[in-house]
Amino acid sequence: MEQDLERSEEKVEMNESKIVELEEELRVVGNNLKSLEVSEEKATQREETYGGQVRVLDQRLKEAEARAEFAERSVQKLQKEVDRLEDELVLEKEKYREIGDDLDTAFVELILKE
Questions:
Q1: b/e string for 50-71 if b means 16 or more Cβ within 10 A?
Q2: Rounded to whole angstroms, what are the CA distances from 39 to 3, 33, 44?
Q3: Residue 91, class by beta-carbon neighbours within 10 Å (0-12 exposed, 13-18 middle, 19+ buried)?
Q4: Which residues of the chain have pLDDT under 50?
Q5: Rounded to the nearest 5°, which phi and psi values hold at 113?
Q6: What pLDDT sits at residue 1?
Q7: Residue 2 pLDDT
Q8: 28 φ, ψ to 5°?
Q9: Which among 48, 68, 70 is positioned nearest to 60, based on CA atoms?
Q10: Which residue stretches of 1-114 are H helix?
């Protein structure tokens, strides 16, 4: 009986030391869990911040695309106007040349009549 008691006491001591080890391990795991929760919270905050930045950048991109489209339409309109003015300039130069030719002819006729 005494031997059984001693063996039982040894088992109790062994189990108590295992309990202490497991409690320590549980404490470490608990601390790790708390650290992970803090990290998760920070990551969630960063994700929300990045999500907000993405939305802002997306809006800015849409605005920039709209401005680019407007600018392209403006350039097309201005190019048409430039083409029209160039055509008008060519016509006016042709008229000017014809008037100059008519004046030259008139001067020659005046000179010949004298």
A1: eeeeeeeeeeeeeeeeeeeeee
A2: 53, 10, 8
A3: exposed
A4: none
A5: -75, -20
A6: 86
A7: 87
A8: -65, -45
A9: 68
A10: 2-113
**Residue 20, token pair as written in the block:** 């202490």
User: What does the alpha-carbon distance between residue 20 and residue 94 come to, in Å, rounded to a whole number?
Assistant: 108
| Rg (the chain; Cα; Å) | 48
Rounded (5°) CA angle 64-65-71: 90
3-class state of residue 114 by DSSP? coil
Confidence at residue 113, expressed as pLDDT on a 0 to 100 scale: 81
> Which amino acid would we find at residue 108?
V
Give me the pLDDT at residue 23, please: 96
Positive/negative CA dihedral, 20, 26, 29, 33: negative
